[in-house]
Design brief:
Helix content is 81%, strand content 0%. The protein is an all-alpha fold. The protein has one domain. Helix 1 runs antiparallel to helix 7, helix 3 runs antiparallel to helix 6 and helix 7 packs antiparallel against helix 8. The longest helix has 30 residues. The mean pLDDT is 82.
């Protein structure tokens, strides 16, 4: 039974991640504008994904435990290019490519570098979610935030906790996914709470 559940967890995670960024991309392209989309937030997210992917590759973990990351990274890169295009900053694309390319190389130079980067990656990702929570608390309005996106993120974290325990059992990876799961659920619940409160008003 365990292999069947493991396969289901892998496949469902890949399926969700294959479309997780498409609503945002569709909205940007439909409006032909990136207004309201934070470049800094996207860059931080992309950094976290690249560090995590590099960490998995560095330690030789099974491909199926991180296959979704190249898919999400590709979607983030396309979204970033759209934002730069609409903001008239396409020249920055080369700068970001050099920075990320150099970072990708530097991460694997020493074991302590990739381990430290992984721990910082978890902190940065957690901080970004806490910032989103703070914004929700300040505005008391969830109108601009997608509960579906956050709930899909929570689901993928839950499945990755299971697959990590069943395969690598890496403590740093588990801490990351458990932290992200808690915060994703928290953000989702907060969005739904304010949406319900708004309907009641």
């Amino acid at each position: 039974m365990a292999p069947t559940l493991l396969d289901l967890a892998h496949w469902s995670t890949w399926a969700v991640c294959a479309v997780i960024k498409l609503p945002q991309l569709a909205a940007v392209l439909a409006a032909w504008s990136a207004w309201g989309v934070s470049t800094a937030s996207l860059l931080l997210e992309l950094t976290g994904f690249l560090v995590f992917l590099r960490y998995q590759i560095y330690y030789g973990y099974p491909l199926q435990t991180y296959l979704e990351y190249p898919i999400i990274i590709a979607q983030d890169v396309i979204l970033l290019l759209c934002i730069l295009r609409f903001h008239g900053n396409m020249k920055q694309a080369l700068f970001y490519a050099v920075i990320f390319g150099g970072g990708w190389y530097m991460l694997a130079l020493h074991k302590w570098i990739i381990d430290l980067a992984m721990n910082l990656c978890t902190f940065i990702s957690a901080a970004s979610k806490l910032v989103q929570l703070w914004c929700l608390w300040q505005t008391r309005d969830s109108g601009q935030v997608s509960a579906l996106t956050w709930s899909m993120s929570a689901y993928t974290c839950a499945t990755r906790i299971f697959t990590t325990v069943m395969t690598t059992n890496d403590l740093a990876v588990l801490i990351r996914f458990i932290t992200m799961l808690i915060l994703n659920i928290w953000v989702t619940a907060t969005i739904l709470h304010y949406r319900k409160a708004k309907k009641t008003d």
